[in-house]
Design brief:
The protein is of the alpha+beta class and 163 residues long. It is globular, with a radius of gyration of 15 Å. The model has no long low-confidence stretch (mean pLDDT 95). It has a 7-stranded mixed beta sheet with strand order 1-2-3-4-5-7-6, sandwiched between helices. It is built from 4 helices and 7 strands. The longest helix has 15 residues.
């Protein structure tokens, strides 16, 4: 695995994150958003903490960490993750996951839940399962692929502290 460094988001990172969000939107198979402003509305929503990962001096990926819900639901973290296409296969997704789980523990979250992992995104599901997440539910046909087909969304969950 390549050396990966993490730093909190700074405005100087915005052009790289815009380019990365554009890749995700154009791909259309893993994110529900259809334009970059919608990705950023989610990424930088109130309460979000955004981190970037550098590999070989370049921005390689990012994640956003936030409460999965309000008030009595705020002890569960939610996250979103993006890795540049050209940086995939270097362990960056794994490093993003591990880093975000550590930050979530530091912030006092008791668990993490992802509400919308596209079932056809096998690499993401395998990554999260490797990190201890499990599929706890499915939303049948909830995600519309660019080709017009529909696929399930998986809800994935991982405890961060012993219950």
């Amino acid at each position: 695995m390549a050396s990966i460094d993490f730093e909190p988001f700074a405005e100087t990172h915005r052009p790289d994150l815009e380019r990365l969000a554009d890749q995700m939107v154009r791909d259309g198979t893993v994110f529900p958003h259809e334009d970059v402003p919608a990705v950023f509305d989610y990424w930088f929503s109130p309460g979000a903490e955004v981190w970037v990962a550098r590999c070989e001096g370049q921005i390689a990926g990012t994640y956003t960490l936030k409460p999965n819900g309000v008030h009595r639901l705020s002890h569960i973290a939610n996250g979103g993750y993006m890795v540049f296409e050209e940086m995939r296969g270097r362990g960056i997704g794994l490093a993003l996951g591990e880093h975000s789980m550590g930050v979530a523990r530091e912030r006092g979250y008791r668990a993490m839940q992802f509400n919308a992992v596209v079932a056809s995104n096998g690499s993401a599901i395998r990554l999260w399962e490797r990190l201890g997440f499990r599929v706890i539910g499915r939303s049948p046909g909830a995600f519309r692929h660019p080709d017009g087909s529909y696929v399930d969304l998986c809800i994935m969950f991982q405890e961060l502290v012993e219950q």
